[in-house]
Predict the 3D structure of the following.
Amino acid sequence: MRQVHYQAHRKLSKTDHTRTRIYALMGFAFTILLIIIIRLFQIQVLQHSAYSAMAQGQHSNSIELAARRGDIYVQDPYTGELSKLATNTTLDLVYVDPLEAENKPEIAQKLTPLLFTQDEYESCKIEPDDCHYDIIKREEELEIEARNQANNQGEAEAGEGEAEIPQSPEEASEQDAQEIQFKDYNAMLDEISNSILTDISKTKIDFVPLKRNASPELIKKIEDENLAGIFINKETFLIYADPTQIPAEQLENTATTLAQHLDTSA
């Protein structure tokens, strides 16, 4: 009888020990899960802005700017006076990566008044030929305005008996064309904003600089290759590519050919 009681007590003690181990493991797993949840809350909620900025910085693109060249002087052989023949010019660059930009309409809307200010607009009216944007109204716009003006004037004078015959659109256009007419500043902002939005909404890269400050000899070699999708701006000595115009079957051959001239890997 004593032996049976001992065996039952031993079996009960073993069951309690197993149950204790299970509770301990469950408690440990719950603690680990709670730590993970707290850590995720810190990262995703409390530190969201910091990690978002870090991720944005890691995905930002960069371009390599050519090194500055030294000033070039010529010396008068008689007086010894030095005259500057060539110098460096620093140009600021603002660009948008369409693949990184999110709210494109908002970007275009905010950039436009910064890129084309009211003061620049007034300067363009003084020297329109030196303006970066086309602010002069063209014949088509003048004809449309003249036609609308003639129609409105005709409607306003209708029913008043004998009224002065309004000018025809052609006559009004000729009269307006005698002096330069400029687009309204707000109309220019809308036009520039739409242009920016079109550019930054591209889904394919169509401009890749390959060589800046290219020598005339290198430019001549690239021209002789006559490669599709490869272009040269002789004013800025820039060799660039438009990947959208390179046939897929010629891509490897184009890269290999360019690599030989540009001293880089295909």
In short: The CA atoms of residues 33 and 86 lie 68 Å apart.
